[in-house]
């Protein structure tokens, strides 16, 4: 019997317009009414998750958030928050040098803001992209999980351009490296070789790499929450689309990849559902046995 449903956000629960489809929302609320607990597990922090949690009534039904790839957990009902670790200035310096070496954009994420570095070459490319796509002149140049530029001001109100290492803060929650998908593919193995022994490094989308403190992962956070709440592995259903979701797949009895998921995620799953623009989560909940039996 499923007691917990755990969902990644971008590319999983959210469609490409950053919304929860109404069919999916209604089915998830019905699950809560039956006693199932919902957990959102994301690279985002709680400030960028709570609006969605409220849409799902997780503040009423005692839902939980796994933030910043497992860096913190947040109780939607009590608002209690437990933060596990952070990256320091030495960590930032190491990744900053890699961003310079490979000409990548570097974003340092904090609870309420971010620091963004990119070269003049990248700046000119972003400005051209903004013009070509008819974005307003004040639209931020900060890279996004799925686009060359994105507006994160709602969840990260304090945003700064860091032209030099000295402009970065003394600590942050995570570091993100981004560029065009082809460029990330070219340098990803080199990044892992440089960082993997000291950090958790995952490619969460074709254009996005996230670096977290060693031992911090969605899967470790989920396992700890399961232990604290006496939840068994076969009582957990997980949905995801990115490499950072695979650690959760190992913690859950049933892991479902979205139709739009990266190939490595589909291979790690017990089944594959429809994509995030076609109510993949809702479809899987209603057809779980059929989806998982196809994968056996």
From TrEMBL:
One example GO MF annotation: phosphatase activity
Protein name: Cof-type HAD-IIB family hydrolase
Protein's organism: Dielma fastidiosa
Spans traversing the lipid bilayer: none
Key words of the record: Hydrolase
Highest taxon of source: Bacteria
This protein's record includes keyword Hydrolase: yes
GO cellular component, one term: cytosol
